[in-house]
Amino acid sequence: MSANASAFDHVLGFRWRQGDSSLADSEARLHDLGVLRSVLEEVVELSVADARADGVTWARIGDALGVTHQAVIKRYGKRSGGDCR
What we know:
Elements: H1 3-13, H2 25-53, H3 58-65, H4 69-76
Helix pairs in contact: 3-4
């Protein structure tokens, strides 16, 4: 099983709002995914800042996140101290 498939299976296992009788299962899943997205974004921000503090280049951070170094700088450059080298 690939890492993506395994992660997907775990995400589908989260059920904070599922079972809430005021929500359809599909709507509850969207609420759950919204919480996960918010938490993951916060963890990515912290991890980017940690990586920059450890001297990891923007290019390597971009590679790790699957985006260009320009995209990483644009999104996280100001938040991680602004050193865009």
